[in-house]
């Protein structure tokens, strides 16, 4: 069962998402919150698999709520998915840097929304290749990690290859096919890379891959 926490200051938005999720046999909405502070408290209480968090809210916004969740070791298994009305705006990369697993636009089609919840619950980043290119081309102007090149030297050649493919938006199965290895081995390479690079999830791995220069936007 995928446990979901809804965090949005608009009751109508929350009720709409709940209506979609409540009819699914493998998804359960465990709590709702109207701001990031309340959302953080409920995340600690319920330990959801997914926290759907609006990016713009009063009291504590979605970026700060994401940052606090990512910094709390008791919430390490919570995948934050940012909700936005605006698509690719200046806040999206900040949310990914803060620890979000990806983002969704609120006018997403219901079937795509449900698919996204399941994708995020598996630990995959909600970043299609086209979205990644737009993010990096538009907003990355300088490296987030000044020592990124040094850090990347910690990776083996196979781990670097796996990270490059993650940054291109490939799934574990697709990465396994490209590298001619098993999906389990591909997952192992990716997990080891995340551990060495001290990133929370695949979304942050994507950001670091681009910002470090391991992957260039025009090559994705």
From TrEMBL:
Gene3D superfamilies (UniProt xref): 3.40.50.2300
- All residue ranges annotated as the HTH luxR-type domain in the record: 148-213
Q: Which UniProt keywords apply?
A: DNA-binding, Phosphoprotein, Transcription, Transcription regulation
Write down which residues bear the modification named 4-aspartylphosphate: 54
InterPro entries per UniProt? CheY-like_superfamily, NreC/VraR/RcsB-like_REC, Sig_transdc_resp-reg_receiver, Tscrpt_reg_LuxR_C, WalR-like
**Transcription as UniProt keyword:** yes
Which segments constitute the Response regulatory domain? 3-121
Supply the name of the protein: DNA-binding response regulator, NarL/FixJ family, contains REC and HTH domains
Q: Which organism is it from?
A: Micromonospora phaseoli
């Amino acid at each position: 069962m995928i446990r979901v926490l809804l965090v949005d200051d608009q009751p109508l938005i929350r009720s709409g998402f709940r209506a979609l999720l409540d009819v699914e046999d493998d998804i359960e909405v465990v709590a709702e919150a109207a701001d990031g502070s309340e959302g953080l408290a409920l995340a600690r209480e319920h330990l959801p698999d997914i926290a759907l968090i609006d990016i713009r809210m009063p009291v504590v916004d979605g970026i700060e709520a994401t940052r606090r969740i990512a910094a709390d070791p008791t919430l390490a298994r919570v995948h934050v998915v940012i909700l936005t009305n605006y698509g690719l705006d200046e806040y999206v990369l900040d949310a990914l840097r803060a620890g979000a697993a990806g983002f969704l636009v609120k006018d997403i089609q219901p079937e795509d929304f449900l698919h996204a919840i399941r994708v995020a619950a598996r630990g995959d980043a909600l970043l299609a290749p086209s979205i990644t290119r737009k993010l990096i081309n538009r907003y990355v102007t300088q490296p987030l990690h000044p020592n990124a090149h040094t850090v990347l030297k910690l990776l083996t050649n196979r781990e670097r290859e796996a990270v490059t493919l993650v940054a291109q938006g490939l799934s574990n199965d697709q990465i396994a096919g490209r590298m001619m290895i098993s999906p389990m081995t591909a997952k192992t390479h990716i997990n080891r890379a995340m551990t060495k690079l001290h990133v929370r999830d695949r979304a942050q791995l994507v950001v670091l891959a681009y910002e470090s220069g391991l992957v260039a936007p025009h090559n994705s």
